Amino acid sequence: METTRKKILIVEDDEYVLGSVHLLLSKAGYDVGTAANGELALATCQKELFDLAIVDLKMPGMDGLEVLKGLKRLSPDTMVIMMTAFGSIQSAVEAMRSGASDYITKPISAEEIKLAIQKVLEKQKLLKEIKALRQELEQRYSLNRIIGKSPKMQGVYDLILTVSQTDATVLITGETGTGKELVARTIHIHSSRKGKPFVAVNCSALPESLLESELFGYEAGAFTGANKRRIGKFEFANNGTLFFDETANMSLSIQSKLLRVLQEREFERIGGNEVIKVDVRVLAATNKDLKKEMEEGRLREDLFYRLNVFPIFLPPLRERKEDIPLLATFFLERYSKAMKKEIKEISPEVLSTMMDYNWPGNVRELENLIERAVIMARGDTITYIDLPSARLEAPAHQEVRIYFGDNKIMELTLEDFLNNCERTYIEKLLEKNKGKIDTSAKEAKIDPKTLYRKMRKYLLTKKSFKIVTD
């Protein structure tokens, strides 16, 4: 509930009217200022901010319209009510076109002016709320929310900024949890359609019959239970953006109808004959290989090429591990604030463990684990994170002998092969240097912390040789 009194400025050259309105509004609980002419009104508004100005239209010297324009330059958020004689309605209409919120005619009744003020201040409150929500949305889906300094993410930023300025259809691909919907919303909020609807449809969450009615709507009587007309997502998103998540899960029948909308910008509701024109930008996302889906007959080839106008691939977190500390810090700040906890940092040991983890659930998994860690934290530092232990275990050590011309090496993935080589190298290095960490790190030309991290990865601290610090 607002406790601050609203400030109102009365601009009127008639002393009797000025005094009467001042007394009326003061008794009503408003903080009231007065100005006997336009010049004084503008001078006052340069020193003070008013929520509302009530301005007489006909005044000697600077008239009400000039005052209105001057007020809008000085304080765009100040609402203005014009006072005018009955015979000057046309001038009042002109004032409304110039930015006035309302007008009242003289002689003014107490109830009329109170009602007009209440209506305009409620409108002002609504406009402020809308402005705040819009700013929150823009901040929430700004590029600052898509976090990453890695080269791969820098490339994603460039693509988002480029395509946002167009109406091109975008296909966003990547594993589950990489942030595909966040990218879609960011594209929308940076486009010319940002003031229009953003409508998200999860194609995997709805059966075919329900998905069709959700997308295209239906007429009354189209099927049992259709008691009245319903507007579909395409109509609701008109002039805005429609985001299809998990596009590959659409049936071929719905794919055919979607293709028509993309090509012709028109459709009919279920059970209807009226052709409905729409102007909708389509963004689509999937974690599946659409080319494979197309080859196996589950995705129409023509739809694939319609969707794949501008592809954006979101790399998995394991391919941009340098972004983990940034993301972890971002989520730490968010959830610490939300839970009113003063958690300042994540311990180096926890960060090191996080860097060794492969993050199959990607950014979403990282966010969930940080949220849980904040809940569990007792001090000002995260010292433990609940990662699935089975996934943290190093693979069983396999010694691989390489012979030119022998295909034995091809039985391993490149990642497994490189891990085996690295493990063997570190093991032999530590044995050579009798477990001395600093000496071994110096010889390997890496930081001792990096060596510790790799030892944990391969569980080398459990070896029989003694680990010592130089």
Overall domain count? 4
Quickly give the CATH architecture of the largest domain.
3-Layer(aba) Sandwich
Tally of DSSP β-strands: 14
Order of strands across the biggest sheet?
A: 2-1-3-4-5
What's the story with the biggest beta sheet? Answer: 5 strands, parallel
Q: What form results from the Cα inertia axes?
A: flat
Report the radius of gyration as a whole number of Å.
33 Å
Unreliable stretches (pLDDT < 50, length at least 5) are: 390-409
Report the structural category: alpha/beta
Number of H- or I-type helical stretches: 19
CATH C-level label of the largest domain: Alpha Beta
Helix content: 40-55%
Distance between the termini: 65 Å
CATH homologous superfamily annotation of the largest domain: P-loop containing nucleotide triphosphate hydrolases
Mean pLDDT: 84
- The CATH topology of the largest domain is Rossmann fold
Strand-residue proportion = 5-15%
Overview of the structural elements:
Helix 2 packs parallel to helix 3 and helix 17 (about 415-430) crosses helix 18. This protein is α/β, with parallel strands linked by helices. The relative contact order is 0.06. It has 19 helices and 14 strands. About 45% of the residues lie in helices and about 15% in strands. It folds into four domains: about 5-130, 3-Layer(aba) Sandwich (Rossmann fold), CATH 3.40.50.2300; about 145-315, 3-Layer(aba) Sandwich (Rossmann fold); about 320-390, Helicase, Ruva Protein, domain 3; about 405-460, Arc Repressor Mutant, subunit A (Orthogonal Bundle), CATH 1.10.10.
